[in-house]
Amino acid sequence: MGYELDFSALAGYLGLFLHGVGVTLGLTTIAASLGIALSIGGAATARWGLGWARALVLAYVELIRNTPFLAQLFFIFFGLPALGIKMTAMTAAILAMTINLTAYAIEIVRAGIEAVPPGQREASLALGLKPVKVFTYVILPQALANVYPALVSQVIIIMLESAVVSQIAVMDLTHVADYIQSRTYRAFETYFIVALVYLAMAIGLRWLLRRAGNRLFAGRSR
Prior knowledge:
Blueprint: H1 14-48, H2 51-65, H3 69-79, H4 89-115, H5 118-126, H6 131-161, H7 173-184, H8 187-216
Helix pairs in contact: 1-2, 1-4, 1-6, 1-7, 2-4, 3-4, 4-6, 5-6, 6-8, 7-8
């Protein structure tokens, strides 16, 4: 017998779908905000920090970029409790996503910093500006403008990778999909809808962040 599509079986789960979307977007927003903020400090340290600090940042970047996100998530949620560090599934998901995004964003921001002509920093210092102000008001805005599209792409990637947090029972969109299909037995319809929702979120978030970037970096080269 041929398989007959039946999307009507999912109609009663609209509220649950929306809850999953809200959790996924909430996790992404928090992780992106924290990750990008931390990456700025990490990139500055990797560029101008003391030798040991630079080595520590670079080791962290290499560790995170060369291990699976799922392994990082499991280590935080299942491994750390062995050392007495316990946290909720939601906290573990936010921490894992932030740690992962920060590592990639450090390299992106560092590339942006290195793309700023050295003369800009030298001229600012010559005018009497303190190094912190030079970085904050001269180097950083240009660096972020240069790499903003790459940062946006990384945020989209971490949003899509957040699907694995369902493995520790966070009620994100993927976990909701697993729950719904286990009760309706309509796996094809459920995951088809979820795939379309992820696609719509990725396109929508990219559009929103690009619009924000156009306003934030108006008049700057990107």
